[in-house]
Design a protein that fits this description.
Layout (H helix, E strand, L loop, with lengths): L17 E7 L3 H7 L2 E7 L13 E3 L2 E2 L4 E3 L7 H4 L11 H23 L11 E8 L4 E4 L4 E8 L13 E3 L4 H16 L10 H17 L4 H10 L12 E2 L1 H6 L7 E2 L9 H4 L3 H31 L13 H25 L10 H15 L7 H11 L12 H4 L18 H9 L11 H15 L1 H4 L9 E12 L5 E12 L1 H4 L12 E9 L4 E7 L5 H5 L6 H26 L1 H6 L18 H4 L13 E2 L6 H10 L1 H12 L10
Parallel strand pairs: 3-6, 6-8
Antiparallel strand pairs: 1-2, 4-5, 5-16, 7-8, 8-9, 10-11, 12-13, 13-14, 14-15
Helix pairs in contact: 3-4, 3-10, 4-5, 5-9, 5-10, 6-10, 9-10, 9-12, 10-11
Bound molecules: zinc ion.
Length: about 675
């Protein structure tokens, strides 16, 4: 079916550009209560195999607890194609596979749109999605396996919310969970060292991005937004459903409510500083961002409300007129899109290592200013104010004025394409041809690597890195992004990530016991002609002999001082977490799972860890004979090492959760 020649029409009918697939809204419980399903509109992959197995993701439906394969769905089956995918049901594993695939592809596509380039995993890798990976109240992205693993569990027997006590709940059927976990995988692809918890914000940023993308994913569905507008009398701040995550998971776990709400608590400038716990800091950031969203939405719909009320802007009690609801919903979708674009574009402007929420704010402001210089609707200023009112501000900026939040420009003009510099032409060509030179695709990468690292060594002092030849500088990523500015023009940008491992400092024992590499890093944002626009350095102090060679007033002295502050902060953090909370310390291991019990496993709760290996998950007709499966699925399973996972999970039943690195 993937090939037009398989069709029976002559002349052949071209393949469609899009594929429509049905999902729950946004999980089985919510669909049962509302009677509503949703349809996702995703790119049509012409050679999609059973699984589904596409170019970017492959769904591996092996159940390691029961040691069974479930029949993979063929989305190109005419019977499936003709009805926008299988009807979402809980008792057919193929519907589970379809939902996991559809939501993942939709999230990836939204990243592509706002990043301004094709998204690829490293080299030729594909993300593996395992819908029935283990029996726990959890789902997590496993960076080592390159997989998202979804758990399932029995609903709480005492307080299952609006579910049956003991009913099997599948995290892979929750659009929010899928979007959240896949975002972890995407962020990990774009910033691989954010698995190093070098300050309380690193994991918090991972979590905040994952929650934000999952929340903004709700706005893909205009009908859902429309309903929320109608229910909240045009004020989305009063609608809980649209701005909350994972209802079914929350209720079935005995919490009586959704897992998290974007609206959170009223702004409190001390709340952020009061906690070093990564998830709570992440929640402050998400809440601040949605404060900005609601403020922008109120601004954008104020004129509609005035028109509809003869100037007062105050709606009479009762249902709001459908025409007004539609217009207000459109404004909500537009505001959500613009904020989502700001956040996703900012990812390229983030430091390569040791990110903080202050850095995220600076990255958002700098990136957005490049694309929307005049900020006609005052969105940046609104966002900065909402962050301030929740206590989030960058360290060591002199004010919250936009100019002081922008990332620094090079002290002296700096160009990637100086004589004997980097030949950007092949990079731009490769990007245009959809290749990522940091991957294994194409030989061009090697030359680019060499040129960029040579250039970086030559300018190490200006970049906030050490020129010591014993400390090699690595090119962690180079991308070309094509973005649209407010005047409709395309603005290409080169984004280079450099890192340098400071073994000299590691030898001094700063991180002894934490098993954490000490990485300095710099993000370089350049124009296509090679001119460096911004530098985002995360330096470490220079050694005494290198420092002695640096003239007074050179920017490297400022980098060195910033490096000393950074090192002191890191020492503090590592010493503090040691006593206060075992988790972040354990999380400082080289590549820990990104998820640190985020979905709130309670290892003390026997219901959460009980095994039901003797209870079939699905009707036996869905159990597949491994001999009939496509080789690619079996291969994907082999490389996943899920047997190991089962053993981990078995061990975990005696205590901690499988994704808990402190276990
Ligand atoms: Zn998470």
């Amino acid at each position: 079916m993937g090939d037009t020649s398989a069709g029976t029409n002559r002349p052949a009918v071209p393949l469609p550009a899009r594929r429509r697939l049905r999902t729950f809204a946004f999980d089985p419980m919510s669909t049962r209560l509302s009677g509503r399903f949703l349809t996702l509109d995703i790119p049509f992959e012409p050679d999609l195999g059973p699984g589904p197995a596409g170019d970017l993701v492959v769904v591996v439906d092996y159940d390691p607890v029961r040691r069974l394969w479930y029949e993979p769905v063929h989305l190109d089956d005419p019977a499936v194609l003709a009805q926008d995918g299988l009807r979402p049901v809980e008792n057919d594993p193929r519907a589970h596979q379809q939902i996991v695939y559809a939501v993942t592809m939709s999230v990836i596509e939204r990243f592509e749109r706002y990043l301004g380039r094709r998204f690829r995993w490293r080299g030729t890798a594909r993300l593996r999605l395992v819908p029935h990976a283990f029996e726990e109240r959890n789902a997590f992205f496993d960076a080592t396996r390159g997989a998202v693993l979804f758990g399932y569990y029995e609903a709480d027997r005492r307080d299952p919310g609006r579910n049956l006590p003991g009913q099997m709940i599948f995290t892979c059927l929750s659009s929010d969970m899928i979007a959240h976990e896949v975002t972890h995988a995407i962020i990990h692809r774009l910033r691989r060292y954010y698995t190093h918890a070098t300050n309380p914000d690193v994991y918090g940023c991972h979590e905040a991005f994952a929650d934000l993308i999952a929340l903004f994913q709700h706005f893909v569905h205009r009908d859902v937004v429309l309903e929320a507008v109608a229910a909240g009398a045009a004020d989305l701040g009063r609608s809980t459903g649209l701005l909350a995550l994972a209802h079914e998971f929350g209720e079935s776990s005995g919490r009586g409510t959704s897992l998290r709400s974007a609206i959170g608590t009223p702004p409190d400038p001390t709340a952020f500083a009061a906690t070093r716990e990564p998830h709570r800091r992440g929640a402050c950031f998400v809440a601040a961002l949605f404060d900005a969203f609601l403020a922008d939405h109120r601004r954008a719909s104020a004129d509609l409300l005035r028109l509809a009320t003869g100037g007062s802007g105050v709606l009479p009690p009762g249902a709001i007129p459908p025409d007004l609801a539609r217009r207000v919903a459109d404004e909500a979708v537009a505001s959500a899109d613009r904020l989502l674009a700001m956040i996703v574009r900012a990812i390229d402007y983030l430091p390569t290592v040791d990110v903080t929420f202050g850095d995220v704010l600076r990255a958002i402001v700098t990136a957005d200013r490049t694309f929307h210089p005049d900020d006609a609707v005052n969105l940046r200023a609104t966002l900065v104010e909402c962050m301030r009112s929740r206590g989030i501000r960058p360290d060591r900026v002199t004010s919250l004025a936009e100019e002081s939040l922008l990332w620094p420009r090079p002290a002296q003009p700096l160009s990637l394409t100086e004589p004997d510099g980097v030949d950007l032409a092949p990079v731009i060509l490769a990007a245009t041809r959809n290749l990522d030179p940091t991957g294994e695709a194409g030989l061009k990468g090697e030359q680019v690597f060499r040129q960029v690292t040579t250039w970086a060594n030559r300018h190490a002092l200006e970049l906030g890195l050490s020129p010591d030849p014993a400390l090699p500088i690595a090119l962690t990523g180079i991308h070309v992004a094509y973005r649209r500015t407010q005047d409709g023009q395309t603005l290409p940008e080169i984004v280079v990530q450099l890192t340098q491992r400071r073994r000299d400092l590691e030898a001094s024992g700063v991180t002894s016991g934490a098993d954490l590499p000490l990485l300095a890093g710099t993000t370089v944002i350049a124009a296509v002609d090679g001119r460096v626009e911004y530098l985002v350095p995360k330096p470490f102090p220079l050694s005494a002999d290198v420092l002695a060679t640096v003239p007074a007033g050179h920017v490297a002295r400022a980098h060195h001082e910033a490096g000393e502050r950074r090192l002191a902060a890191l020492r503090d953090w590592l010493a503090g977490v040691d006593e206060a909370d075992a988790r972040p310390r354990a999380a400082a291991a080289p590549v820990p799972p990104v998820h640190v019990g985020r979905w709130e496993i309670d290892p003390a709760d026997p219901a959460a860890t009980k095994s039901h290996a003797d209870r079939p998950l699905f009707d036996p007709v869905f159990v597949a004979d491994p001999a009939t499966l496509p080789g690619s699925l079996a291969q994907a399973l082999q490389s996943l090492g899920l047997r190991k996972l089962t053993r981990d999970a078995d061990a975990a039943r005696g205590g901690a959760a499988p994704d808990d690195p402190s276990a």
